[in-house]
Structures are given as C-alpha cells and as structure tokens.
Amino acid sequence: MKHVLIADDEDMVLKLLTRFLERMSFCALGCRNGTEAMERLVLKKEDIALAILDLNLPDISGIQLAVQLKQIKPCLKIIISTGDPISAMEINNAYGSQLVDKVLNKPFSLSVFEESIYGILGKPL
Q1: 38 and 65 in contact (C-beta within 8 Å)?
Q2: pLDDT tens for residues 23-57?
Q3: Domain ranges, ordered by start, for the chain
Q4: Among residues 4, 50, 28, 23, which one has the least CA distance to residue 111?
C-alpha cells in the first residue's frame, strides 16, 4: 500500500483529505506542521510515495519543507496546496528543479483532488 504524507494546519482539511485518501486505498499520514512531517518521513521514508503540503504551515513554508523532504528522499512526489495564485512551473523555475509535481489551488473539489493523486501515483491495485 502506498503511503501519502499530508501536512496541513487546518484540522478540518487534514481530516477530510486523510479520510478521502484512505477511501482511495492509500495509507494517509496526517501532520499539522512541517516538523511533524519531517519526523514522519524519516520514520517511514521507504513507504511514502507522495507528500501533500500546505504552502503556509505554522513553522515552515510548504516550499521550504518540500526542499528538505527531497533532500531526504529525492524521488518523493510533491503536491503543494494553497489559496495563493502560484503554479508548479513558477515554483520549479524559482528552484531550478522538479521540486513540485502539482499545485492544487484552494478551494478544490474532491474530484480534482482524486484526479491529481491518481495522475501522480496511479490507481492502487
């Protein structure tokens, strides 16, 4: 089973996305800040295939967290979720690499969320 790490400081968003990912047959690991997300990745590095990071976490920006997570696991796929008008191309151009695979602009529907996850990870067997 593929594991998905979610870092979002909004409890309602975190619970909703965690439950939805579990219904999609993924193991969801919810975190409320960047520190917790880093700890989870270190502990479950081999299992985590995707990280969904809120752009504005209380202790670190989602982009800075993405950079740190990629240092630990370079093949990690990353989605940034944000209400700010920014694209994956803008982030990747600024960092000169394929840091982010997708940006989900809030508010997004669960069907857009599902399509984004399957587009990156494929459907679980």
Answers
A1: yes
A2: 999 999 999 999 999 999 999 888 999 999 999 99
A3: 3-121
A4: 23
